[in-house]
Amino acid sequence: MEIRYAVEPNLSVVEFLSVLSSSGLAERRPVDDPERIGRMLRNADVIVTARSSGDLVGVSRALTDGAYCTYLSDLAVDRAFPGRGIGRRLIEETHRAAGLETTLILLAAPAARTYYPHIGMERHDSCWILRPGTRLRADRAD
């Protein structure tokens, strides 16, 4: 079964939600808010899809400046398509579309932590996040 990869900037919310669900990534995304999912898609710089017989089986969504860094914010592959290199190829195609001179950065879902070193990505231990609704403390001067 051939998998076709393409940059699809106009991927529909319905298809994106479907692959989030079939991949298991839905538990970590705001799938109960389709309007927000739509903003996520519209504001992405790069969306790469993987299709089998026209059906969406994988997607990557990234933000980039095209010069220095690319944040791969979503990588989802349908669990019915394991071990076919779809995730690796989505990463490669995303990096190519964003610019190979950029550093590609991602936060791994807990279940995927062992996948990324397996394909040659380097672990980085100094990532910091500020979750929605969290305020920065003003307990010391900068």
Give a description of the structure:
The chain has 142 residues and is of the alpha+beta class. The protein has one domain: Aminopeptidase (3-Layer(aba) Sandwich). Helices cover 26% and strands 24% of the residues. The chain is built from 4 helices and 5 strands. Strands 1-2-3-4-5 form a 5-stranded mixed β-sheet. It is globular, with a radius of gyration of 16 Å. The relative contact order is 0.16. The model has no long low-confidence stretch (mean pLDDT 93).
List the SSEs and their pairings.
Blueprint: E1 3-7, H1 13-23, H2 34-42, E2 46-52, E3 55-64, E4 69-77, H3 86-98, E5 103-105, H4 115-118
Parallel strand pairs: 4-5
Antiparallel strand pairs: 1-2, 2-3, 3-4
Structural class: alpha+beta
Total helical elements: 4
Percent strand equals: 15-25%
| CATH fold label | Aminopeptidase
How many angstroms separate the termini?
56 Å
Secondary-structure element sequence?
Answer: EHHEEEHEH
Largest sheet: 5 strands, mixed
Radius of gyration: 16 Å
Count of beta strands: 5
